[in-house]
Amino acid sequence: MAKNLAPQLETVFSARGITKVYHMGEVDVHALRGVDLDLYSGEFVVLLGPSGSGKSTLLNILGGLDSPSEGTITYRDKKLTSFDDAELTSYRRDHVGFVFQFYNLIPSLTARENVALITEISRNPMDPVEALKMVNLHERIDHFPAQMSGGEQQRVAIARAVAKRPAVLLCDEPTGALDVETGILVLDAIQRINEDLGTTTAVITHNAVIADMADRVIHLSGGHITGIEQNSTKKAAHELTW
Ligand SMILES: Nc1ncnc2c1ncn2[C@@H]1O[C@H](COP(=O)(O)OP(=O)(O)OP(=O)(O)O)[C@@H](O)[C@H]1O
């Protein structure tokens, strides 16, 4: 069943009039052209849209990796768009977990050590082994990235992202480099974390099938939000196929 996204749910992000223009020499690239979006506590949203529609730009701005050209974003009661660099660094470190298409693990560190890199600088972290258990990798804790499959490495990256108990998990094409079976294991880990920790989760994908897992599906095209659907029922990751 989809979560009840009644208006009384806490608003985690409130973005208004977000534009982003990249200046490339003589050319201006309009990545976002006036985006208004609210994201609610604990929800699972999927961002769908063609290449170049602005999905990554929006996610990077929400995660404090980039800033908009115009517009405002509030995160809970704080105005993210007024943060200075130090405040953005603290925001990212304390509140946001990131998962990217490529896992960015340190090859010379084991799974446990890759996760510990983050828990050592976090305020209220899980034990790295606990985080690796959440993604079903507890038998691989002492393995190096080269000894793991792509899906296993991505699950280490997810464990690393969630070990600091972030309020928000932002995933940019987390299954883009994986086959179906492995991709489903990765999505299952993301879904379990959303449900067990109540982490507000946004997943970018080109794969429309993954939208069936979401509470809400946000469609982007040409730097605009062109539609938002709420799923009345949502599927478990293991029910998906593509
Ligand atoms: N750092 C940058 N410098 C210049 N242009 C950029 C930059 N990042 C993104 N763009 C441009 O902004 C537009 C939106 O890009 P964005 O990566 O947000 O789209 P996307 O929907 O995530 O695409 P994809 O699905 O291919 O990842 C594109 O035209 C892209 O080329």
TrEMBL record:
<keyword id="KW-0813">Transport</keyword>
<dbReference type="GO" id="GO:0005524">
    <property type="term" value="F:ATP binding"/>
</dbReference>
<dbReference type="Pfam" id="PF00005">
    <property type="entry name" value="ABC_tran"/>
</dbReference>
<protein>
    <submittedName>
        <fullName>Putative ABC transporter ATP-binding protein</fullName>
    </submittedName>
</protein>
<dbReference type="InterPro" id="IPR017911">
    <property type="entry name" value="MacB-like_ATP-bd"/>
</dbReference>
<dbReference type="InterPro" id="IPR027417">
    <property type="entry name" value="P-loop_NTPase"/>
</dbReference>
<dbReference type="InterPro" id="IPR017871">
    <property type="entry name" value="ABC_transporter-like_CS"/>
</dbReference>
<dbReference type="GO" id="GO:0016887">
    <property type="term" value="F:ATP hydrolysis activity"/>
</dbReference>
<dbReference type="InterPro" id="IPR003593">
    <property type="entry name" value="AAA+_ATPase"/>
</dbReference>
<feature type="domain" description="ABC transporter">
    <location>
        <begin position="13"/>
        <end position="240"/>
    </location>
</feature>
<comment type="similarity">
    <text>Belongs to the ABC transporter superfamily. Macrolide exporter (TC 3.A.1.122) family.</text>
</comment>
<dbReference type="InterPro" id="IPR003439">
    <property type="entry name" value="ABC_transporter-like_ATP-bd"/>
</dbReference>
<dbReference type="GO" id="GO:0098796">
    <property type="term" value="C:membrane protein complex"/>
</dbReference>
<keyword id="KW-0547">Nucleotide-binding</keyword>
<keyword id="KW-0067">ATP-binding</keyword>
<dbReference type="GO" id="GO:0022857">
    <property type="term" value="F:transmembrane transporter activity"/>
</dbReference>
